[in-house]
Design brief:
Elements: H1 3-19, H2 21-34, H3 40-53, H4 57-64, E1 77-81, H5 91-100, E2 103-107, H6 115-126, E3 134-136, E4 145-149, H7 152-161, E5 167-170, E6 174-178, H8 185-196, E7 206-212, H9 218-224, H10 234-249, E8 255-256, E9 261-264, E10 274-280, H11 283-292, E11 297-302, H12 331-336
Parallel strand pairs: 1-2, 1-4, 2-3, 4-5, 6-7, 6-11, 7-10, 9-10
Antiparallel strand pairs: 8-9
Helix pairs in contact: 1-3, 1-5, 1-6, 8-9
Length: about 350
């Protein structure tokens, strides 16, 4: 298949997703029954984001023209170890390997093992020539390169196990947001999406705020209370209640509005149903702090530009584009370099 052929398949996949609701429903249901964090609404949200940001022809062409992707590719077998913290989180890797012209040996997460195979099946129905590009495996045994996503602990093992082949090994990262105190309610609601989308389980979700030293949290807490339907989800509510009880027992200072706990901490990563915060003195000290923590940060959300940092607007954290690479590592450059 040529690059044009592969792009056309992806564009048709986007159209297919929008017209096959009856085939999606049983898969959504099965996914939810096996992992209660992957609700039907969140599966829909993830698919809609993929269609809008990944599977548009103009965006695919703009993305791929930045690389030297030949129609004649010496195919490599690329092992993919996918995460399952939010629906379809590994699809960008699958798409990238396909676009580059290589084959994927895919080890799915047990937390999300139905959605990506469905999309791959649909690609095969659109064009049978795509079928040899994908295989699903229980264990990686044949591979020329590896892209593996996991925790900080598993990353150590991945680095050792795959050290003999080209690899991308991803670790824990989280999004952070910078507040300056001038945010409107609309902006804070958008920030709420960055915090609460997918129950905050994604690496791009905002888990920590950086706020001015004199920041008044009342307006923020009142605004974030509009996301209180989250506590109707049993697993989220259990985490909220557990954290609330632990902080009370330990007599730790914290704020709560009934759906999220806000607590001062130096940590970037926080518990489910919790949002950390840290005070900053000025922009230069903030830039220095965030730069020093860059290996822990996936993205920075801020309504205004911050000198020396790449930021995104509130509400966009969980709407990545094709060139928004996890951990800042250019996946497609890595893949095209395998040739």
């Amino acid at each position: 298949m040529t690059l044009e052929d592969r792009i056309n398949v992806l564009v048709e996949l986007g159209h297919h997703i929008q017209t096959k609701e009856e085939e999606l429903q049983p898969i959504f249901r099965k996914t939810y029954l096996e992992n209660k964090w992957l609700t039907e609404n969140n599966c829909h949200k993830a698919l809609n984001g993929i269609v809008e940001h990944f599977l548009q022809k103009d965006k695919l062409l703009e993305w791929t023209k930045q690389y030297q992707i030949s129609d004649v590719v010496q195919k490599k077998n690329v092992g993919l170890i996918l995460a399952g913290n939010i629906p379809l989180v590994g699809f960008h890797d699958v798409l990238s390997v396909f676009v580059s012209g290589h084959n994927s040996n895919i080890k799915l997460s047990v937390k999300d093992k139905h959605l990506i195979p469905l999309l791959v099946k649909w690609m095969g129905a659109i064009n049978p020539d795509t079928k040899p590009y994908f295989s699903f495996v229980e264990k990686l045994t044949t591979y020329d390169a590896v892209i593996a996503t996991g925790s900080n602990n598993t990353a150590v093992h991945f680095e050792y196990y795959f050290k003999h082949v080209p690899n991308i090994i991803r670790r824990n990262r989280n999004g952070v947001a910078v507040i300056d105190g001038t945010e409107s309610k609309e902006t804070l609601l958008e920030l709420g999406n960055d915090v609460f989308d997918y129950f905050g389980l994604g690496c791009r979700n905002v888990s920590k705020l950086y706020v001015p030293e004199d920041y008044d949290f009342n307006f923020l807490m009142e605004t974030l209370h509009e996301f209180n339907e989250l506590v109707l989800h049993n697993k989220y509510k259990n985490n909220f209640d557990y954290n609330y009880a632990i902080f009370l027992l330990n007599q730790d200072p914290f704020l709560s509005n009934g759906c999220v706990i806000v607590k001062e901490t130096k940590d970037i990563a926080t518990r489910i149903a919790m949002l950390g915060y840290e005070y900053y003195e000025n922009e230069s000290s903030l830039t220095a702090e965030l730069t020093s923590r860059k290996d822990d940060i996936q993205c920075i959300v801020a309504q205004n530009e911050i000198e020396g940092l790449i930021t995104i607007q509130p509400g966009k954290a969980q709407q990545p584009h094709l060139s928004d690479y996890a951990d800042g590592v250019d996946t497609l450059s890595f893949l095209t370099g395998l040739n």
